[in-house]
Amino acid sequence: MKQGGNMKQSENSMYSQQTLARAIFDDIAQLTRDGEGVTRESFGEGEEMAMRAIERHAIDMGLATERDRYQNLWMRLPNDNRSEAPVVIGSHLDSVPQGGNYDGLAGVVAGMLVLQRLREAPEVAPPVRVLALRGEESAWYGKAYTGSLALLGKLPAGALALRHRSGQGTLGEAMSRSGMDIDAIMQGEALVTPADIAAWLELHIEQGPVMVARGWPAAVVTGIRGNIRYTHVECIGETGHSGAVPRWLRHDAVLATADLLSRMDEHWRVLLQMGMDLVMTTGILSTPAQSHAVSVIPGNVGFSFEIRSQDADTLNRFHALMQEECKAVEKARGVRFEFGECLRTAPAQMDEGWIRCIEEAASLHGAPIERIPSGAGHDAAVFANAGVPAAMVFVRNEHGSHNVHEAMEDADFMAGVDLLYQALLHVPEGPRQAPQQPELVGV
Amino acid sequence: MKQGGNMKQSENSMYSQQTLARAIFDDIAQLTRDGEGVTRESFGEGEEMAMRAIERHAIDMGLATERDRYQNLWMRLPNDNRSEAPVVIGSHLDSVPQGGNYDGLAGVVAGMLVLQRLREAPEVAPPVRVLALRGEESAWYGKAYTGSLALLGKLPAGALALRHRSGQGTLGEAMSRSGMDIDAIMQGEALVTPADIAAWLELHIEQGPVMVARGWPAAVVTGIRGNIRYTHVECIGETGHSGAVPRWLRHDAVLATADLLSRMDEHWRVLLQMGMDLVMTTGILSTPAQSHAVSVIPGNVGFSFEIRSQDADTLNRFHALMQEECKAVEKARGVRFEFGECLRTAPAQMDEGWIRCIEEAASLHGAPIERIPSGAGHDAAVFANAGVPAAMVFVRNEHGSHNVHEAMEDADFMAGVDLLYQALLHVPEGPRQAPQQPELVGV
C-alpha cells in the first residue's frame, strides 16, 4: 500500500473541496481528451491513464492506495486498519467512446472527498474505502459491469471471449493486457464477497432530464431498472395493391403495429397513473427497405420492443400484457407477430435503510431531497443483486450522458458529496435486508 | 382500313366465343412471354407484338381495322359507316414488366367479341368501335395513361422527357420509334374529342380481392378512385436514453406516429361505416437506419401516407382531418410533422346512366350484379374526366394484378362480355351528364 509522502493538511471547507474536485476533473479530462469528449476505453489506455491520475491525486490528498489483482484501485485513510466490513464508495473510470467526463469519474472523486472529510474524526463513521472500478460501459465489449462482476466472481467465463467493438481482440485479452489476474477471473475467483462489504454507495450523474426539469440538484435513487428486451419482433400481414384492397380484406402490418404500440402506450400511461415504475421504447421500426412502396399495403414490419422497470413483477406483467395485446391485434387484423430472442436483465433495489438515511441526512441539513429511479444501469446493481446493501445519489446533469454535452454543476456535485458524507454519520441500523426481487420469467 | 379477306361466318354462341377468346389470350401470352409472366413494354416491342396479333385476330374475325396517327388500333364491323358518335369499347395492350396476361388485354378482346356478336344485327345497338390503346402502365415511364392522354390531346408536353425506368431513353423517343406522330403529340393535337365518343366502355380484371371474397363473377364499377399522396412525412421528436427519460419528458417519434396512424385508422373505420369510399395506406415507415437503436428513444420517423377515394370531397376532408390530427399529436406529444410534396390525382366517376343500364341488363338476364369501386387507375378515368360518359365492368380475378399469378376464369370473362353486349341493347337515354367532381384542393 502506497501512502502519500507529502500529505497536505486536510481541508474540509466545501469551497476548497470544490476547487480540488474541479482540478481532478479537469486533469483527467485533459489526459483522456478525444475530440470534443473523452475516451477511456474499458481495460484500455484511457482508463489506465485515469486510474493513474486518480492514484496520484489520492496520494496528494494523503490517502492510502492499493491495486487489487483485478487492477481496481482501492483508497482509504492512511491509518485505517479497522477490521469491520467497510462501506465502499465507488464508481467506474471508463467511458464510452467520446463520452462525457463525469459518467463514472464523479463517483470516484466523490468518494475521495468523503474520505478527506472523515480524516479528522474517522470514528464518527464506519470504515470507508473508495473503489475505482474498471469496465462498466457496455460500449466496448457489448456487456456492462464486467469490472464489478469480475470483482465479485460473477463474470461468466464466456464473457472473456466477447469481441471488441472494432471486431479486433477480446475482453479477456484486454483484461490480461491491463495486468488483471486472468486465470483467477476465468475461475470465477471473487476478490471480495458480499459479506466483506457493509454497503455500496455510489454517486453518479443523472443520465436523464428529470432532475433538470424538476430543479433537483441531488436526489436519492430508489432502484436501478431492469429490462425485458426484444431486438426484433416481426409483424407479418399481407401485401396488396393500396387502391384495390378494401379495409375488410387488408392485413396491414403497419396499422397492426401502430395499433399494438398505441395500446401499449395507453396501458403505460394508465400504469404510471397507478404509480408503477415503467418505461417502454420502440427505438427501431421499419418496413422492409427492399420492397416497401407508397402504394403497397405493407405485409411486414420489424420493430424492437424494450420495457424497463425497477420492479420485476411490473416487467413480467407488462410483458405478458404485451403478448396478450399481440394476440388481440392478431385476431382483429389477421396478422401474426413473430418474436426474436427475449433478453432479460433483473432490476436492482437500493437498500431502503440507506435511502431513508440519505433522506434524513438531507432533511437535517435543511435541503430535503426527492427519490428517483435510475433508468440506466450502474455497478450498484451488481452489488445490490449480490446481496450488498447499496445506495446511490444522483447529481443533476444536463443533456444526458454518453455524449460530450454532459453538464454537471460543481455546486450540485458538492451537494451530492455532502449527502454521502452526512449519510455516513447516520448509518442505518438493524440486520441487512436480503434483496427480494422476484426472478424475471418467460411468459 | 384493312378488312379481313377471308371472313369467317360469325359465331355467336358463348361457347365458341369463349374458345376464341382463350385462343387469342394464349396466342398473345405465348408471343410476349417473359419468364413466368408477360412483358409488353409501353411503346415497346411486346406491346407492338400484341397490337399486331390483335390486328391479325380481328381480321380473322371479319372485323375492319385501322391504326390512328398515334398507333392505336381501332376495330369496327366491316360495313359500319354510321356517322353517330360511337360507343367505344377498349383498354390497353401494354403490361408491367413480367406482369399478367389479362390486365388490359381482356378489355380489348371483350370489345372484339361484342363486335362479333353485333354482326348479324348491328342496328339493335349504337355504332360500336373497339380501341386498343398503348402506354397505360406507369411502370415504364412513371406516368400512367400516356396513350389515352395523347389521344385526347391531354398529354403534357413535358411528359415526353420522362425517362425510361432503366434510366436510358425517354417516353418521347419511344413514342417516336413506335411510329406515333410525335410532332402532333407535342402540340397536344387530339385525334378524337369527347364529343366524338358517345361513351367509353371498358372491361378489366379486378386488381383486388373483393370479388373473389364476395363470390361475384362480374361487377359494375362505380368510379375510379383518385388519391392524395405524400411520399414522405417526417415526424420529429427528440432522441434520449430509453431507460433514463420518463414518459412525461419524452418526445417519442415512433409512438407519436403510431398514435397518428391509429387515430386515422379509427376515423377510416368510422367513415366506412358511414358509407364513404376510402382507403388509407402507409406503405413505408422507418426509423433512421443509420442511428436507430433498441435503447434509444426514437427522435425521427419517416413515413408515406396515401388516401384514395372515389369522391374528391372525401379525399379533401380526410386529408384535412389528417392534418388536424397531426396538430393534435404534435401538441399532445411535443413532436413536429414535416410534410414533403403532396401529389394529387382526381377521382373519376363512372356514368350513372350506364351503371344502371349495365345493372338492368344483368337483372334482365337473371344474374343481378353488384357495384364496386376501382381502387386502381384505368384509361376510363381519362375519358370520364374529359367528359365522356364512361363505364367499366370488372371481372373476378385471383391474386391481384401486376404479377404473374393473375387468375381470371374464362366463364367469368364471358359473363363480363355478356354484360357489355346486353348493356348496348339498353343504352341509357337523355342528355350526357357533365362530370361533377370538385377539384382536389390544398388545405
Question: What is the fold's blueprint, element by element?
Answer:
Two copies of one chain form a homodimer.
Chain A: E1 2-3, H1 14-31, E2 33-34, E3 37-38, H2 45-60, E4 64-67, E5 73-76, E6 87-92, H3 105-118, E7 128-133, H4 146-151, H5 171-177, H6 182-186, E8 199-205, H7 210-214, E9 218-224, E10 226-236, E11 240-241, H8 253-273, E12 279-281, E13 285-286, E14 296-297, E15 300-309, H9 312-333, E16 336-339, E17 342-345, E18 348-349, H10 352-364, E19 370-374, H11 379-385, E20 390-395, H12 410-424
Parallel strand pairs in A: 6-7, 6-8, 8-20, 9-19
Antiparallel strand pairs in A: 1-4, 2-3, 4-5, 5-7, 9-18, 9-20, 10-15, 10-16, 10-17, 11-14, 12-15, 13-15
Helix pairs in contact in A: 1-2, 1-3, 1-12, 3-12, 8-9, 10-12
Fold and architecture overview:
Two copies of one chain form a homodimer. With 443 residues, the first copy, chain A, is an alpha+beta fold. The first copy, chain A, folds into two domains: 2-224 and 348-424, 3-Layer(aba) Sandwich (Aminopeptidase); 227-345, Alpha-Beta Plaits (2-Layer Sandwich), CATH 3.30.70. Chain A has twelve helices and 20 strands. Chain A has helices spanning 14-31, 45-60, 105-118, 146-151, 171-177, 182-186, 210-214, 253-273, 312-333, 352-364, 379-385, 410-424; strands spanning 2-3, 33-34, 37-38, 64-67, 73-76, 87-92, 128-133, 199-205, 218-224, 226-236, 240-241, 279-281, 285-286, 296-297, 300-309, 336-339, 342-345, 348-349, 370-374, 390-395. In chain A, the strands form four sheets. In chain A, strands 1, 4, 5, 6, 7, 8, 9, 18, 19 and 20 form a ten-stranded mixed sheet that branches. In chain A, strands 10, 12, 13, 15, 16 and 17 form a six-stranded antiparallel sheet that branches. In chain A, strand 2 and strand 3 (37-38) form a beta hairpin. In chain A, helix 1 runs antiparallel to helix 3, helix 8 (253-273) runs antiparallel to helix 9 (312-333) and helix 10 crosses helix 12. The longest helix of chain A has 22 residues, at 312-333. The first copy, chain A, starts with a strand and ends in a 19-residue tail after the last helix. Residues 4-12 of chain A have low confidence and may be disordered.
